Structure formats: structure tokens, C-alpha cells
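Session log. Operator J.P. requested a structure for one protein chain; no other inputs attached. Running the standard single-chain path with C-alpha cell output.
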Amino acid sequence: MADLQSQVSDQASPALQPELPVTVTQKAVNMVNITKEQEGIDPAWGLRIAVRGGGCSGFEYALDFEDEPRENDHVYDQFGLKVMIDPISGRYLKGTEIDYVLGTSGAGFKFNNPNAMGTCGCGSSFTV
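Structure written below.
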């Protein structure tokens, strides 16, 4: 009986891992890496994902390259890319998926944010 309990506990423990604030798709990671290469950014640098005040809807998304995380950042790996998010941005971004899309209107990073109550026409700013 004890062996069965330990097997069940061992199998259940990966589900208890903390949820990532943001998921970055493989396609988006590929485009980040292509951009780093084109701009001459060190491949070891990570991607900072943030929310800033501004835009036509009140908040806007920001993507920047950084070499080191800041104190209190959420730092994790997505398909080999180091992702850094400050705690305040993490609250606004919780559950967000970032993808890279190609369409008739152009190409770019798309933020699928379940916390956004409204977005602007271009999709780069939002309200909560």
C-alpha cells in the first residue's frame, strides 16, 4: 500500500509546479531568436515582457532584450529562451499567451491576454 501511495504522489507532483505568468509559443520564440540575430544581440540575453501605462486603451505591452534579470523578476525558460517578467506586470499578464502571427494585415507578436477587458484596434494596448 505504501508503494502505491508513493507512486501516486510521485506522479502527481509535476502538476503542483507553479503556473507560468506568460506562455511564449515556439513560433514566437523562433522570431525572438531571429530578431536577436538580425540586431546583433547576444544569444544568451533573455526577453523582458512587461506592461506599461500608455497606449490608446490605458496599458501597453512591451518586449525588450536584457542580459540579466532584476530583483524579484519571474524568470523561466520557454523553448530555450530566458523570459523575465516583473511582479507587477505578471499580475496583468497572468495566463497570457504570446504568439507570432502572419496575416493579411501584417505580421507581429499577438498577446492573448485573458485579463484584458478591452483592446485597441492594433492589439498592442488593453484595459483591465
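Operator note: Helices lie at 2-12, 26-39, 87-93.
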